[in-house]
């Protein structure tokens, strides 16, 4: 149940956020795991980071271009977010997209997010 006054500017609220959500142990070497998103959403995170890069077969991936972690399929991550976005909180969920995709794969990102 939403109990806060939701008419104020976004900057007036404390927002439970997650950075490098998919990295469940080490921020440089991973491992990367979709359960990082599951855990964050179940802990009422309201801002989640998604670094999206071009992936194989025209399917975008979640990755960090500056480290050695294995990528996650964007499609799988967005499905988990869609399923659990309001599992623990009814407050708005902010998706912070770090877009590192070609125009072609940006269109695929949009299609996955519309589902």
TrEMBL record:
Its EC number is 3.1.4.11. The keyword Hydrolase applies. InterPro entries: PI-PLC_fam, PLC-like_Pdiesterase_TIM-brl, PLipase_C_PInositol-sp_X_dom. Keywords: Hydrolase, Lipid degradation, Lipid metabolism. One of its GO terms (molecular function) is phosphatidylinositol-4,5-bisphosphate phospholipase C activity. Residues 4-115 form the Phosphatidylinositol-specific phospholipase C X domain. It catalyses: a 1,2-diacyl-sn-glycero-3-phospho-(1D-myo-inositol-4,5-bisphosphate) + H2O = 1D-myo-inositol 1,4,5-trisphosphate + a 1,2-diacyl-sn-glycerol + H(+). Transmembrane segments: none annotated. It comes from the Eukaryota. One of its GO terms (biological process) is phosphatidylinositol-mediated signaling. PANTHER family: INACTIVE PHOSPHOLIPASE C-LIKE PROTEIN 1, PHOSPHOINOSITIDE-SPECIFIC PHOSPHOLIPASE C FAMILY PROTEIN. This is Phosphoinositide phospholipase C. It comes from Hypotaenidia okinawae.
């Amino acid at each position: 149940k939403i109990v806060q006054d939701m008419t104020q500017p976004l900057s007036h609220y404390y927002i439970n956020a997650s950075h490098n959500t998919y990295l469940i142990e080490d921020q440089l070497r991973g491992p990367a795991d979709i359960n990082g998103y599951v855990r964050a959403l179940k802990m009422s995170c309201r801002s989640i980071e998604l670094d999206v890069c071009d992936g194989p077969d025209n399917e975008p991936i979640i990755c960090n271009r500056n480290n050695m972690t294995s990528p996650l399929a964007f499609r799988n991550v967005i499905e988990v977010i869609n399923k659990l976005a309001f599992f623990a909180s009814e407050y708005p969920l902010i998706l912070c997209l770090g877009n590192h995709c070609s125009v072609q794969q940006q269109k695929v990102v949009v299609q996955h997010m519309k589902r």
